Amino acid sequence: MLPLDPRARRLLHALIAQHIREGAPVPSRVLAKQAGLEVSPATIRNIMANLEDVGLLAAPHTSAGRVPTPQAYRLFVDSLLEVAPLRETEIERLREHIAPGVGTQTLLAQASEMLSAMSQFVGVVTVPQRLQSAFKHIDFVALDDNRVLVILVFPDNEVQNRILQLPRPIAPEALMQAANYLNRHFAGQGFAQIQRQLLAEMQQAKSEMDGLLNAALDISGQLMAAEARPEDMVLSGQTRLMGVDGLSDMERLRGLFEAFSRKREILGLLESCAGAEGVRVFIGEESGLAPLAGCTVITAPYASEGQVLGVLGVIGPTRMPYERVIPIVKATADLLGDALKPA
Question: Which residues of 236-257 are buried (b: 16+ CB within 10 A; e: fewer)?
Answer without folding.
Answer: bbbebbeebeebeeeebbebbe
